[in-house]
Amino acid sequence: MPSEVSFEGTEHQRVVIIGSGPAGYTAALYAARANLAPIVYEGLEPGGQLTTTTDVENYPGYVDGVLGPAMMEDFKAQAVRFGAETRYGSVTHVNLSERPFRIVIDEAKGVLADTLIIATGASARYLGLENEKRLLGRGVSACATCDGAFFRDVELAIVGGGDTAMEEALFLTRFASKIWLVHRRDELRASKIMQQRVKEHGKIEIIWNTIVTDVLGAEEVTGVRLRDVKSQAERDLSVRGFFVAIGHTPNTDLFTSWLDMDSQGYIQTLPGSTRTKIQGVFACGDAQDHVYRQAVTAAGTGCMAAIDAERFLASGPEDIS
Q1: Residue among 284, 317, 303, 321 at smallest CA distance from 31
Q2: In the predicted model, what is the mean pLDDT of residues 185-213?
Q3: 48 near 289, Cβ under 8 Å?
Q4: What is the predicted pLDDT for the residue at 146?
Q5: Average pLDDT rounded to a whole number, residues 97-107
Q6: What DSSP letter does each residue of 63-75 carry, written as one string?
Q7: Catalytic residues
Q8: What is d(CA 287, CA 170) in angstroms, rounded to the nearest whole number?
């Protein structure tokens, strides 16, 4: 906690939500409708991962689909309508040793909070290729469940070697004509049963000992450039989509010294709730969900977090020692 940040006379809020996206905005909506006047610090990427997505067709209520950024604007506007306040800024430090909790915004401003809802999400891991981010949402994706249906009857490439990559590849076979699974080693890291399913599937072909060095295409993906790790020979593979399945990183470093986390850094919550081990601190969305990672499930846990916070405040618990 920066020593120069003073909390004397600073603002004191009942509910502070860290992070936006489906979880944060839904938590804000429910907290606002409970007259808790929540404050949302939107972070460096207001709207979360969905702002890098094009069409969203699997969220209930959007019959014709919706662009990811537009959907997040709808979520935000609905929360603001009922009294939530959204602010640009990132939470850079927290002190959760006692209530009210001490929160520092952008290394400079102090805020006190009776309850804290963590909705910082997770970030997909990418390869860091030259054209990867440029073509994100235009053929490059890190979520087969989200985007697979856009790639019917075309060839796709997917990179990865763990269970996530196997699951994504198998899911994509429902739509694509062929899946090229690119792996840098000569054996997969995935469980034996998942390896077997992939190897036996007629639509999936594994390219061993190979890395992807770039994504090709001007306005949308037209192929990937491959390099054999042994011979260093390069070749281009014609595909219409490129899926990265090398995992996600939860954005939870801020809370490492305060909350229980699993081996991957996802915040652990009590079964059947969004409560953490610290009274008054709740976690929702992809910051605590490493299984589903969908907009609709994130929104669901955002609702849960707001209800949990409301009930906590209504119960009048004593300060934490």
Answers
A1: 303
A2: 95
A3: no
A4: 82
A5: 94
A6: TT-EEHHHHHHHH
A7: 143, 146-147
A8: 26
What are the C-alpha distances in Å from 69 to residues 43, 47, 208, 309? 15, 7, 37, 27
Q: How many CB atoms lie within 10 A of CB 81?
A: 11
pLDDT at 45: 77
Give the position of tokens 């990559």.
165
Domains annotated for the chain, with CATH where assigned, are: 12-123+248-315 (3.50.50.60), 126-244 (3.50.50.60)
Tokens of 228: 């054999």
Distances (CA, A) of 133 to 53, 137, 179, 214, 243: 12, 9, 21, 11, 12
Instruction: For residues 98-102, give the mean pLDDT.
Output: 95
Residue 54 in this model has a pLDDT that exceeds 70:
no
Structure tokens of 15? Answer: 């509910």
The amino acid that residue 151 corresponds to is F
Q: How far apart are CA 305 and CA 285, in angstroms?
A: 9
Question: In this structure, what token pair is assigned to residue 285?
Answer: 């969305």
